[in-house]
UniProtKB/TrEMBL annotation:
Region (Disordered): 1-36
Pfam family, one: Amidohydro_1
TM spans (from-to): 47-67
Protein name: Amidohydrolase-related domain-containing protein
GO MF annotations in UniProt: allantoinase activity
Amidohydrolase-related domain residues: 417-515
UniProt keyword annotations, A-Z: Membrane, Transmembrane, Transmembrane helix
Native organism taxonomy: Eukaryota, Fungi, Dikarya, Basidiomycota, Agaricomycotina
The keyword Nuclease is annotated on this UniProt entry: no
Amino acid sequence: MAIQARAVPRRAAPGDVEKAPLVDTPDNIEAEGDDDNKHARRLTTHFYVHPILLFLIVGGLCLRNFGFPFPSPAPEPLPPFVEDGMKQTLPLRVSVRTVSPRETGAVWLKNATLWTGENDGEEVLYGADVWLDGGVIRRIGKADDMVDLLAASKDYEEVELNGAWVTPGIVDVHSHLAVDASPELKGNSDTNSWKASIQPWLRSLDGFNTHDQAFNLSISGGITTMLVLPGSAGNIGGQAFTFKPRWTKENSPQSMQVEPPFVIEESDSGENQWTRTGAWRHIKHACGENPLRVYGNTRMDSAYDFRRAYTEGAKLKERQDRWCLSPKTQTEPFPSSLEWEVMSDIIRGNVKVNIHCYETVDLQDLVRISNEFQFPIAAFHHAHEAYMVPDLIKQAWGPTPGVAIFANNARYKREAYRGTPYAPKILADAGLRVSMKSDHPVLDSRFLVYEAAQAHAFGLNFSESLSSVTTHSARIMGLGHRIGYVRPGYDADIVVWDSFPLTLGATPKQTYIDGIPQIISPHNFNKPSAAQDISPAGDYDKEAQEAIDSRGDPNLRPKKSSSAIVFEGVQNLYLDGVTAQGEPGRVVVQNGEIACAGKDCVVAEGEYEVVQLNGGSIAPGLITTGSKLGLIEIAQEKVTSDGIAYDPLSGTELLDGLLVHAVDGARFEGKDELMAYQAGVTTGVTSPMTSKFFSGLSYSFSTSASHALAPGAIGNAAAALHLNLDNSGASVSSKIALLRSLLSGGDSLKASDELHDAFKSAAAGDLRLVISTHSADAIATLIRVKREVAPKLKLTIVGGFESWMLAEELAQEKIGVIVAPSRSFPASWDQRRILAGPPITNHTLPSYLASHGVTVGLGITEECDARLTRYDMAWTYASSPNVFSKPDAIALVTTNLQELLGLNDGVQAKADLGFVAYEGDMFSFESRVRAVRAPGADSMDLF
């Protein structure tokens, strides 16, 4: 029979992280493993006593207590359905592994700078050796400590690291890799079901696509483990599973799992059977806007649906518990339900519950429900408002949930509107476990460590930042007993880095999964010594507190400005036409213009604001393009945007219509604009919003302006003519036919005079034509059109992931490319042939194009990414210093974009970008903007 007991839950104190021994043993694995073994698995503990054993125990007690013997009849065998039923609620266990079941082999990593994850992430071992064997970490020490292993091993790989940084493999706690597969096709879209809002019976494992092109990309970013979740269309989207993103000999989804909760294994009778292993299970919940948008579930509907589902689970658990009280007397099989059994298992504490939740109201709804049905929450994901209510998170039933968040991705919908880059620091300071995650392919998980680096740059200390993509994520997933640390006995999932992992552009040299190197012939660059140092966390305490005090809506306008400033400690001047007198040292600004540059500049009498830049730089204001910044505030709220532009191409003919001017829908003082301005982005360039062929005329604007009539608000009101050349709507060939006709004069076409005039100007080279496409085939066709129809055409490609295949032809025809976004990802069929960059290829896409003489700019696709423009530029430089000098890299987001977007065409004066003063090296995370002179301004805003 099975006897039930309910243990009293112990709530983990804020920041309570269990310390782990260095070597796994059966005792310490169960005691530590991850702290959830101790705290979360205490919901309902089942003690199983076989009837035979119970009979013997009772008999023994009778003999001892009463002193007389009695006959012991042979026990009757239990029916098979009773035996099976008694296995259904076995307690979870953590297996002790001495070797990986999948791999063998030995690797000796020598002379590493090793971040182990120990000592709350503070431990760094210098000159350490790591021995990997049989898929696990065998030993950490010095060369002398490896003598016996070397002698015992007949075949091993010896790798001299020369002090390179080594960390545990990167763990992504929120991914849709292989269910939202790349490139996206109708045949591989398995992230969501569209049948109902509550479907706990679905499993991401059943849609896991082993042909996802992103596997190798993610591996090249150090990803070694990922929790693959169903999507968030419904409130309960289904069960999630943990995978390693590498192919196995079996090459099946099951063989890629880390700890499968169920496996196909051979029974004693030699037959294959579906068997429960006892490993953690995982499930995805979602609340807020997604279920509303997809199923019409308001928050009240969603809360009811959650409670209804948990009620079904509680009913099933109660029936199961009654059965377990007296299994020998049962005449029916153990109670089960295909639909609700996982809900029962959640209440038993056997399932990690991961909840897509943004706002305070959503967070409290689920906290309330967790207490009502007494189940723990593993983590709240996205959780853009969690930083405002950390004490609410701690009210969840059982141990405090983790919080899995983005570093920057926000404001794309209302519930993400109050996101802040200071959230990781605020949450960690409040004692919560913070994980950075990708939501792949929302963000390419290859660059998950970049999320941690941004968290570090905006205030999170280095140990918490590295832990946020290793130890914290592993423990949230219930895998802290085998991944997330560099410890003997743990999985041999190791990343060797070309620099300190939180530096800008840090890239793996090699990724080991189960001790096997995953990157074939990696392309590595030697980074400077400064990139190897542990970087300091950014000092943003004041800004973080302001985000809290304002309830997520701080005043982003500059609080101070001055028309007379002296900048001291200037090391670099990157402004055209400004020459320093000797060493820069000092720069004097009067009425928005640089009056003097040089250490010997004499400051006239009067009041000057003195700003110390500590070896910093003064550079042009940066340009952002590619998103709809300046036309939209919240992407999923139509009322906050200009709306979709009129498209004169309808059906198969060109109608009398308008040539849309984006400037007429200009919107100012949006959060993303003001945050970009604080980050040194002074100018935005945006074309009308549409996914159709015709977009219209773009405009440039000041990111600091309050309205369209403010001085300097509008730069070029009709900068370039924009088109979209993808395979949606009319065929590409139809669009090209129309383009040919318009460029050749096509007066027979039924079109407005303004539209005809615009294309005539483009054909003559007076108006730049900007066409969005990634496809090499489409780009090749455009090159032919230029050669055959409009040789004078000034043409720019935006997107251009496959443009590297035509680099020589593009250079020959003087066709420029704005790479947007700056790091390629094969999201669609027309983007699949990418140039991935190091460590997979020796060139990035921008560096390859530039090395072939193509004029290159960098762009974005999401409005929130405008504030990261400087980081994109610096990353491109760090990845290809042999191609780009620092002035060349700055040109990628300044003067090159001026040319490629036609900002200086047809205007009397060169476009004014203003200039920006940076404290520290503007090519590093540690640098920050101290002052900005906006376009057309006669004073500088101080930050």
